[in-house]
Amino acid sequence: DLATTLPAGLVLGAIPEREDPRDALVSGAGGLRQLPAGSRVGTSSMRRQRFLAAFRSDLDIVDLRGNVPTRVAAVDEGRCDAVVLAVAGLRRLGLAARITEELDPAVMLPAVAQGALALEVREHDEVTRALVAVLDDLAARAEVTAERACLRRLEAGCQAPVGALGRLQDGALHLRAAVASPQGVATVHLTFPVEEAEALGVRAAENLLAGLGLPSLRGVAWAGRELRDPELPHR
Fold first, then answer.
1. Is the dihedral of CA 137, 143, 147, 150 positive or negative?
2. What's this model's pTM, rounded to 2 decimal places?
């Protein structure tokens, strides 16, 4: 989790190669399409809850908190039939074997910058910036820049039901972004030159907001908690 607007004097010195950004289903009852009606699916994320409900309204989506092993244990102990977690987190904790299904982004768009790591450094620390620059990955940088720009323009907090996924392919940057509102899931898919990653994210957000008839998601009851600081949108 990283503020979408960094404090003065800090910059992202590098964004290394990205891990798989998708969400994963950990289940003892098959993949998302195979889960019996009424299955209890655990997740504390409003984004995941809303996208799950849009795809399978017959599931019983329950709030589930705790660290990754605790959530996986909820399936083993029978408290949930399935849980949804980030593929990246499961892999990094050596729990990749527990993944039942890597969820298609067409069903569940990941959170902004999911699977990416950031090296935050002091803006004027040229020595450190030069050292970490070798870790910067062009594709990850472009994708994350577009995704974060979209979230920033939406003025959405970390609890908002917002998904975004950038992909650099054949020299062009593609961005799919979505907001799950009470009226359904609004989605946009745009392609810009890679050099215009920031503009791509802003345009995607503005298209979503136009479709929702809103100037931003700030203060919208269904979009989650208010931002703690108006100058520092979170995530």
1. positive
2. 0.91
